[in-house]
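cron nightly-structures :: item 1 of 1
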Amino acid sequence: MVLTVAMPWGWTRRTVLAAAGSAGVVVAAGCDLNGAEPSAVPEAAAAALRQVAGESLDLANRYDAAISQNPDQSARLTAIRDAHREHAAAIGRSLDTSVAPAAAPAASGSQASGSGLKALAAAEKAAAERAVAACVAATSYHAPLLGTVAAARASHAEVLQ
């Protein structure tokens, strides 16, 4: 028996996995044969990478607030927060620079209540969609990294439901 669960925005897990598999084929087809890192990242691509990384740090800050307001959810929220920080660090390493949050850190409290977890899920969904757009526009070298970030954000949104 196969269990199919609908995601909040109408996608099923099977749809996400199929799309990810298709994207992997497209990304693999676009890679050059030696898989070498580009010597310089075009500024538009670097800006998109910094934006995705900054959003990861913004989300991590929101999780800090949620953890302080929902200590009973600490284990799952901490794991997600740490994943966002690692995504930002990985993108920074690919750019040979550190990254900064895209926006000012959110005030703790207003976003961290029970309804705040729903707001986090909505933020994850929106951030996943932006990461997908960045992935599609990225160079073949950076597309797998951005695709991983997009997939993680989609799964985070699902976990928060």
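cron nightly-structures :: done
The two ends are 23 Å apart (CA to CA).
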